[in-house]
Design a protein that fits this description.
- This protein is mainly β.
- The protein has no helices and 6 strands.
């Protein structure tokens, strides 16, 4: 799998992905429509950590089969 630049394309809303914040930090996260009138795109992790400026994302790998 390859990293996708956030400036080129964003993932679908509410689909779990892996996000990089531009440094060495990588998080499982979801891009959601939150806020007033559901117009704000916000990234959140399982720990409800807000990721303000991610640079790249990629789909999650498929689960193990065995």
């Amino acid at each position: 799998m390859k990293w996708i630049k956030c400036s080129e394309r964003m993932p679908e809303i509410d689909i779990p992905v892996i996000v990089c914040d531009g440094g060495v930090e990588v998080y499982p996260a979801i891009l959601g429509m939150y806020g007033v009138f559901n117009v704000l795109n916000e990234w959140y992790t399982n720990d409800e950590l807000h990721i303000s400026h991610p640079t790249h994302w990629m789909p999650l790998p498929p689960p193990p089969t065995e």
